[in-house]
From TrEMBL:
ATPase AAA-type core domain location: 71-372
Organism annotation: Sunxiuqinia dokdonensis
Domain of life: Bacteria
InterPro entries documented for this protein: ATPase_AAA_core (IPR003959), P-loop_NTPase (IPR027417)
Record protein name field: ATPase
Amino acid sequence: MYFNHFIIYICKIITNTNVKMVLEIRIGNFFSIKDEIVLDFRAANIKSANARALSNNLFDFNKTPILKTIAIYGANASGKSNIIKAIRFCNALVFESHQHNENTIYNFQPFKFNGYSGKPSTYFIRFVSKGIEYEYSYSLTQQKIISESLYFYPKGRIKEIFTRDERLGKAKKEKYSFGDQIKRPMDVAENTSEKTLYISRASQMDREIGKEIFNYFHSQFILDYVGFGASAIETLSNQNRKQLIEAIKIADSDIIDVKIKVLKKAGKHYKADAQTMTLTVEDVVQDYLQIRTFHKASPSTAFDFLTEESQGTIKLFFIMLTILDVVKHNKVLLIDEIEDSLHPKIIEYLFNIFRTGIRAQLLCTTHNTRFLNLKNVRKDQIFFANKNQDGSTDLYSLYDYSDFRDTMDLEKAYLQGRFDAIPFMNDSNEKIKSLFDGQ
């Protein structure tokens, strides 16, 4: 009961005047992803009793039910992390490409087999910003942008904002076409090189729709739970201090207070590499912030947060700080391997926060089969990543298995290999003993 009141309190301060969400993402020819895969947040038409009981897993947009969370399961090396990595790269390119020079080589790899290394990689996203639906897409190689387009639905009907195809000629007027939404659009085109996304340059040149799309990707689509940077962590900690402490208490932590001191001012743009996102929390904050925690057993004794708290507590602190902001402002969050360093009950708690939120969305990968329970999740919220014979990643939903009923044991079926997406090992005693034969 206390948990529900806590989340409702957070969500009540948000109005419905700035509706934003992701509806669909399509990716092709990135890393182990060969052919296009689809992640659809628009809910399927499931009429089972279990699905009807899970209304908190959805919200409505223009009479269309939208999923709040999607979890991707798969074996190690199946490519599920590559899905997250590709989305991070593609989104980050929107708010970084205006900085690129002629020597820029994009930091992603296309699929390496079957001749795909020479083919363009593709990205498509359908999303909503300020209550209006957009379709944005582009294709590229490691050396240049090939095509780009933006459409929207201002009155429920699709309308072109711009399209671009670098293969159509040498002159800008041959490559571009425009609707009537961008002022002096060719001025932007003349300043857009093959290394730069047009929408990124349009934002830099103060075009309203360019700024709208830029801000959606930069501020609405959170690429990882450490993606804020040190200065934002300080700000968010101060803004959400009471809620943060209460949220950590709900998770059975005995921390009763947190104090943050600025050691030196952080730069404006401090983030992980768009390809690998390898920076840890310590990398982000250790030179900029001093964080002290205080515990119930001795309220006056300060703990150095980064060196004296457990890795699980550190991760919970920062992921909770991020989730509070995401849920309060109805953002989208990507997390790879959400269970890392966290107890399954804590992960369940994080899912519950999104269920209780209004329009916040979570896309994550996980190995934890405990959450494969159709009493808690809908079939269209579960996706599987599987490695094909040619080494490529396939992605499909549990909803695709029409013969799998809600009354069946999903966890057991998954571990038995019903949906593939698990490692198939020969780990018999004889096989393991053979590893050491001759030593």
